[in-house]
Specification:
six-stranded mixed β-sheet; alpha/beta
């Protein structure tokens, strides 16, 4: 079963999960908000105008310059994080206790823990059900246990219903949020990735963890093989060696196109082969967020 080492979990406790864009909120947290108000972080001065709050008048500046200036602040605000986990049948590929969904669970759980430790609200939504249920983002301590319990109970089955998940998000999540997506992106709908990336142009910030099994990346099969669909009744018996070169070319094109579209949309992207260690994936993500944070 995929796991994170105890030393790494201790290191993970020191990480900060930050957003790239300005948050909108009124709670104390890690994310700069465009709202003005009391805060520990001073931002700038502005010259007094009728209607400005006199309580923010900078008396020291008045004494030195004999002019009225108002202190402005960057209000620190929470921004909710929502874990979007693909639980379609294809996510069950691999060993029973070490498949793509199990990897997604570990990664999602790690992010839930970090966000919870920094007092950010965390929610969960899976997208293989026609009527997905959103576990709404909350920040209180016992909500983390509920998130982890729900993650543990997820099963890989059925077809992907991304559209239904996006409708649920739009209907139930009214504020800006950071969406962390865990999926193999293997779907009959050719517009699945485009649908996901459109979220970036709305009220959401987006990061995508593209989880694929090593068999899918390397196609190691050599003997005549019967391939069974994990989402419907389709089956195909072929000699893999006749297909291998073409398959690998298509896979490379798929990966290159996915990465390119994410870069264009300014979406963080990470390819996650299931049998690689997960610690480097998380380390790289947090390093990128630290370097790439912007206003």
């Amino acid at each position: 079963m995929p796991h994170l080492s105890l030393p790494f979990l201790a290191q993970l406790a020191t990480f900060k999960l930050r957003v790239k864009t300005l948050a909108q909120g009124i709670l104390t947290g890690l994310h700069n908000s465009p709202l003005q108000g009391q805060s520990v972080e001073f931002s700038e001065h502005k010259e007094y105008a009728p209607g400005d709050e006199l309580c923010h008048l900078d008396w020291k500046v008045l004494g030195k310059l004999d002019r009225y200036f108002i202190k402005r602040f960057e209000h620190e605000a929470n921004m909710p994080f929502v874990l979007l986990v693909d639980t379609s049948g294809s996510m069950g590929y691999g060993e029973e206790t070490y498949n793509k969904l199990e990897v997604a669970k570990v990664l999602a759980g790690a992010f839930a823990w970090v966000a919870s430790k920094q007092q950010d609200a965390v929610g969960l939504l899976s997208f293989s059900q026609e009527k997905p249920q959103l576990l709404r983002p909350k920040a209180h301590a016992n909500h983390l246990s509920l998130i982890l319990s729900q993650l543990q109970s997820l099963k890989a089955q059925g077809e992907t219903h991304l559209g239904a998940a996006l409708e649920t998000l739009s209907a139930q999540l009214r504020r800006r949020a950071v969406l962390l997506v865990f999926s193999d992106l293997l779907d009959e709908n050719p517009n699945m990735l485009s649908q996901l990336l459109k979220l970036r142009t709305q009220k959401y910030e987006l990061a995508l963890f593209h989880i694929l099994h090593s068999d899918e990346l390397n196609f190691p099969f050599e003997e005549p093989t019967l391939f069974l669909s994990m989402e419907d009744e389709r089956r195909l018996e072929i000699h893999p060696l006749r297909l291998r070169q073409s398959y690998l070319q298509h896979m490379q094109h798929f990966l290159k196109n996915t990465r390119s579209q994410c870069q264009t949309a300014n979406v963080d992207y990470a390819l996650v082969p299931t049998h690689n260690p997960l610690e480097p994936v998380l380390l790289q993500f947090f390093a990128q967020r630290k370097r790439g944070r912007r206003k």
